[in-house]
Amino acid sequence: MLLSTINISVGDHIVRHIGPLAINMDTVLSTVVAGAIVLILGFIMRAKVTSGVPNGLQLFFETAVDFIQDLVESSIGKRTSRLVPLAFSLFMFILVANWLSLIPTGYPRPLLPAPAEDVNTTYALALIVIIIVHVGGLRAKRFRYFSHFKNPLNIVEELVKPVTLALRLFGNIFTGGLVVLLIGALLPVYLVPFVTAGWKLFDMFIGFIQAFIFALLTVVYYGLAVEEHH
Amino acid sequence: MLLATNNFLLPNGTFFAEIIAFLIVLFVLWKWILPPVVKMMDERKEQIRSSIESATTQKAEAEVYKAEAQASIDTAKAEARTIVAKANAVAAQLKEEGRQRGQDEYDRLVALAQNDIQQAKNKAVEEVQKEFGQLVILAAEKIIGEELDIKKHERIINEAIDATSKGMG
Hints:
The complex is a heterodimer of chains A (about 230) and B (about 170). Chain A has 7 helices and 2 strands. Chain A is mainly α and about 230 residues long. Chain A has one domain (about 15-225). In chain A, strand 1 and strand 2 form a beta hairpin. Chain B is mostly helical and about 170 residues long. Chain B has one domain. Chain B has helices spanning about 15-145, 155-169. The interface of A and B includes residues 24 and 61 of A.
């Protein structure tokens, strides 16, 4: 009864048609803002970068880079790889993008929803990852890489990987936004700010974990693709 | 409409925009942001490594210096002990010499004094004997009534003196 009075629409976006393409303008705006924040933080950090005592921002970057280098090293055996920038960019971008939804920018339809609330974002990221993974496997093993696909189950596995990668991120972040909507719709108005604040703190944690998992799985998949023995 | 759909699990044109957006982020981070971070991390690692290395070297050097210093201290202590022992020996010798000299001086002075006393005594005895002899002669002249020739009666007089001096003696 209550639900019928408010209109919660799922996967609804502000769509503009550019040529033959339908573009979700809210997702694009959020993505641009998230990307800009990552890059601006990066350039601020770069301006004061030092080999001495790092400031908080540099420390954050260094911690993330060091962590991803460790991850890459344990997966493919060397710290310096093109995988490091990829995994780092994925982690930073997804983290900032997810945390963007912490900012209240409108209800029920925020001006800046988390970009990962739109499957377009997560499919795009998963596609980039899976292309790089297979290219990496091909470069490492040449034609021997195709022997991996003699088992049809492996083909299924490789097809499922990008889909799960994309939908895991989408599902977690989309749910986060949905819960905010439900809190606003179902709870008495005086409780809404407190419950929303509590939920967003938890959502912040989910946002971090999902960014981390996405980067981690990217490294793991890449490691599996370039690994010599099956 | 390409990929335009009501099913929210299917992508639309946004997909391409997202790919481009992420590739831009990836490219910028890769080319401009990450290299300085990695460079600084490596530099810091190198600084820490060289600091630890030099600290290790300096520690080893310090151990050597410490051993040398300890050796010097040991030598100095041994020397000090030798010097003190020598000084003690010299002091004991000087003390003994001083005591000996004092004793000698004492003995000499005592001997001298004894000698003086003996001489004075002898002289006194001699004078007394001489006077006593004259007294004896005077007394004898008075008794005999004539002068005694000292040379003539010397033997008798000396016998008398010897007799009396034995009595005094």
